[in-house]
Design brief:
alpha/beta; 8-stranded mixed β-sheet; 6-stranded parallel β-sheet
Length: 420
């Protein structure tokens, strides 16, 4: 008897309840296509990011859950307590091997989320052996080799090797999904992927829809002073974010005696190092992750929402926090490469201002500029919310996924990938 619903197998190392990075998008996509009649099965890891430790209650060798119409299988893998580039690679490989040796069933389409690139490559080999007729889609959230290059985490030889490796993985995908038009250009140019095999599906805002709040009350709940301007950086604290720049700006604010307070909300591999750097700096506070509703309130309550990127980072990723920032309706300040993808996104949305990365004085002056003109700041916040409502909606993204999956399953894709 023929199956009534198409089956999709989703492979990705990050999945809810992880609340930051690519996890909300993988989860949203899986729930979204399940809502369009797909039988969706996810092979993922136990929640561990960005803390790099297992979430309480998880850690079984194999765990099966069902949420929102999605069947979820969690596989135990190696999680490094201190995630250097080498340890992260081993972590990805261990997850990839767990995926490869687990039962996949009979999916009609396979969607692999990258990163993790190494586990995606292992999955591609497995698919070539056991599911060679099944369309294999790679959903690119970050450009792996470009990330190694821009963050300086690998030698030139390693970067060149990974560039070739990443190109091999993408060229052997049936279709490549990217999250931004500039990603599409890089994938086409750097990896020689035909344009017709690349599809842009924008990430969306995954925080709860903003509602009216009493900002004074929320500030009190969060322990924020009502007499200081709050500059909030929310999300991962890793190498890419280069947050020592923010600590230096906070130190300048303290020395200058200006009523500005920086809040770093979240976890990450660099948090302990940053807390040590901030010793004696009274104008910076670290906060642990918040639940979804309180997180949304925190974004709405801050005076300025901050994106900070390490010098040299320009093209590797679109910060996932931007979708949440735009939804909050607050002005965005980005310390980043003025010619990079983050700056382009903020300026396109007319939602904030951009200053060069690695310049704490410029960062502090930009905060003063925003806080000294509240009408202009409010206008930037409204622009960001309008951009979110018109461009970054989940329904548009899920519809694009469903259309693409239908095309490749029905054989309407005239550009199949070569077999490894």
């Amino acid at each position: 008897m023929p199956r009534q619903s198409p089956q999709a197998l989703v492979l990705g190392i990050n999945y809810p309840p992880e609340h930051t990075g690519i996890s909300p998008y993988t989860g949203g996509m899986a729930r979204g296509i399940a809502g369009h009649g797909y039988e969706v099965r996810v092979l993922t890891a136990h929640p561990h990011y960005p803390e790099w430790k297992l979430r309480s209650g998880y850690g079984q060798w194999t765990r099966h859950d069902s949420e929102d119409g999605v069947s979820i299988t969690r596989l135990r893998h190696y999680i490094p307590a201190r995630p250097s580039a080498t340890r992260r690679a081993i972590s990805e490989i261990s997850f990839g091997l767990r995926q490869a040796f687990h039962r996949w069933g009979r999916p009609d389409v396979i969607i692999a989320v990258s990163p993790a690139l190494l586990s995606t490559a292992i999955a591609r080999f497995r698919a070539a052996i056991t599911h060679r007729r099944v369309p294999f889609i790679v959903w690119v959230q970050d450009l792996y080799s470009l990330g190694l290059s821009e963050t300086g985490q690998a030698s030139g030889l390693t970067v060149r090797a990974m560039l070739r490796f990443e190109g091999w993985v993408l060229r052997h995908a049936t279709r490549v999904i990217v999250i931004h038009e500039r990603f599409a250009s890089r994938v086409e140019h750097d990896f020689k992927i035909p344009k017709e095999r690349i599809t842009v599906v924008r990430n969306w805002s995954h925080v709860p829809a903003p509602r009216e709040i009493d900002r004074d009350t929320v500030r009190h709940e969060l322990g924020w002073s009502g007499h200081e301007w709050i500059v909030l950086h929310a999300g991962n604290m890793g190498v890419k974010q280069g947050l020592a720049n923010v600590i230096d700006a906070a130190r300048l604010a303290q020395l200058d005696g200006v009523p500005i307070h920086f809040v770093l909300l979240g976890e990450g591999s660099e948090r302990m190092h940053l807390e040590n750097l901030a010793d004696g700096v009274s104008t910076v506070t670290f906060m642990d992750p918040l639940e979804a509703d309180q997180f949304s309130k925190a974004l709405q309550t801050a005076d300025v929402l901050l994106v900070n990127e390490k010098q040299g980072v320009a093209e590797m990723a679109v910060p996932s926090k931007l979708t949440s920032y735009f939804a909050a309706g607050r002005p965005v300040l980005a310390a980043t490469d003025p010619a990079g993808i983050t700056a382009e996104e903020i300026l396109r949305a007319r939602a904030g201002i951009v200053v060069p990365a690695g310049n704490p004085r410029s960062l502090l002056e930009a905060v003063l500029k925003l806080t000294s003109n509240p009408d202009a700041a409010e206008a930037l916040g409204r622009n960001g919310r309008a951009f979110r409502d018109s461009v970054l909606t989940e329904s548009v993204a899920i519809d694009a996924f469903v259309e693409l999956l239908s095309d490749v399953i029905d054989g309407d894709d005239n550009h199949p990938a070569p077999r490894p």
